[in-house]
TrEMBL record:
This is Small ribosomal subunit biogenesis GTPase RsgA. It is an enzyme of class 3 (hydrolase). PANTHER family: SMALL RIBOSOMAL SUBUNIT BIOGENESIS GTPASE RSGA (PTHR32120). HAMAP family: GTPase_RsgA. GO terms for cellular component: cytoplasm. Residues 109-258 form the EngC GTPase domain. It is found in: Cytoplasm. Belongs to the TRAFAC class YlqF/YawG GTPase family. RsgA subfamily. InterPro entries: G_CP_dom, NA-bd_OB-fold, P-loop_NTPase, Ribosome_biogen_GTPase_RsgA, RsgA_GTPase_dom. Its EC number is 3.6.1.-. It comes from Salegentibacter flavus. Signal peptide: none annotated. Its main location: cytoplasm. It comes from the Bacteria.
Length: 355
């Protein structure tokens, strides 16, 4: 397989040449477990770790490789490889780190499209759709809405749902499918492009695994463990998290992806709620919160019924979450800085005492 088959492009190649990385091998991280990586190269899959240098020059977890990353690495005779550099990312999906407040955890990188999967029966929820959209918009990933289980509803209900979406969400393709009858499969297959990278976002039970299995032409979820011997006879076993689909698309499906909470949409609100943001330019006060101010263009539009009340409320809720998350990050930075200073003072002090 060529690098291009799993997503390598001219931009990455240009970076590689300009940054004197020609002596390294290039590969894509297909799985990660406790800082051990499986990297797919033209020669096959390699097991790798990062160099000490990369570790020490990393300021945050974001600088470490993640699934989807393109990396420059060296393979040693022992069959072991070291990652020297992470090539620039075109997109990044992250979530709030559950253990550490204010820390981000990268789920996957270099994703072109996210399939936002919602079942058309009980799962359908437009507020949640807006949240997933916001995740996409803040991650620089293009969204596609996929409605599954349309075999469980009638045509009237389906057109109602489609209408509901269109009132609140503009310019996002919507594909309605049934994994059971395979209705709409031609449409979903048609949007999946060769060498583009996809991921799926959606609640549990909406049909993501079923769709993935069908698109890959294999039963991946059950046979997800690959065992392959490296050229030195070492065995690499990993949970495959990057899958090449039947028509050449690439799908990232790692455990983290399934856990991207809808609370992780800390940016991208401007794009999801562009109507509200456009209106806000006409608010009397620059720092208008659009909740009780005089001369608020958003409240005026709301009163006139020009924007949906439910959408407005969803926006306010997400805006509050965003503010909260940002202040947690700011606080953490302040603490880190204070700690850094204390450490410096301590070292200075210790050095003074030496002489
Ligand atoms: N009727 C109907 N059932 C479906 C459809 N798609 C999936 N299902 C069923 O819904 C259930 C859940 O499907 P999965 O594919 O496991 O859902 P998932 O999104 O991968 O769920 P998690 O693995 O928990 O994230 C299974 O019993 C499927 O057979 C559909 O289009 N129509
Ligand atoms: Zn306002």
């Amino acid at each position: 397989m060529k690098l291009e088959d799993f997503g390598y492009n001219d931009k990455l190649e240009k970076f590689r040449v300009e940054n004197n990385l020609k002596d390294f091998e290039v590969g894509r991280v297909v799985s990660e477990h406790k800082e051990r990586y499986i990297v797919k190269t033209e020669k096959g899959e390699l097991e790798a770790e990062i160099t000490g240098n990369l570790r020490f020059s990393s300021n945050t977890r974001e600088d470490f490789p993640a699934v989807g990353d393109w990396v420059a690495l060296t393979q040693y005779d022992s069959g072991f490889s070291l990652i020297h550099k992470v090539l620039p990312r075109s997109s990044m999906i992250s979530r709030q780190n559950v253990g550490q407040a204010g820390e981000k955890q990268i789920i996957a990188t270099n994703i072109d499209y996210a399939l936002i999967v919602q079942a058309a029966d009980r799962d359908f929820n437009i507020n949640r759709l807006e949240r997933y959209l916001t995740i996409c918009n803040s991650s620089k990933v293009s969204p596609v809405i996929v409605l599954t289980k349309i075999d469980l509803i009638d045509e009237l209900r389906l057109s109602e749902i489609l209408e509901k979406i269109k009132v609140r969400i503009n310019n996002v393709p919507i594909i309605a499918i049934s994994n059971k009858s395979q209705d709409g499969y031609d449409k979903i297959k048609a949007i999946i492009e060769k060498a583009k990278t996809y991921c799926m976002l959606g609640s549990s039970g909406v049909g993501k695994s079923t769709l993935l299995n069908r698109l890959s032409g294999k039963t991946i979820m059950q046979t997800n463990t690959i065992s392959q011997s490296t050229n030195k006879g070492r065995h690499v076993t990993s949970h495959r998290q990057l899958v090449i689909l039947e028509n050449g698309g690439i799908l990232i499906d790692n455990p983290g992806m399934r856990e991207v909470g809808i609370a992780d949409s800390t940016g991208g609100l401007e794009i999801t709620f562009d109507r509200i943001f456009r209106l806000s330019h006409n608010c009397k006060f620059k720092d208008c919160t659009h909740t009780n101010e005089i001369g608020c263009a958003v409240l005026e539009a709301l009163e006139k019924g020009e924007i949906e009340k439910a959408s407005y409320e969803n926006y306010l809720k997400m805006e509050r979450e965003k503010t909260h998350f940002e202040s947690t990050i700011a606080e953490k930075r302040k603490k880190d800085k204070a700690f850094g200073k204390r450490l410096k003072d301590y070292k200075k002090d210790r050095n003074k005492k030496k002489y």
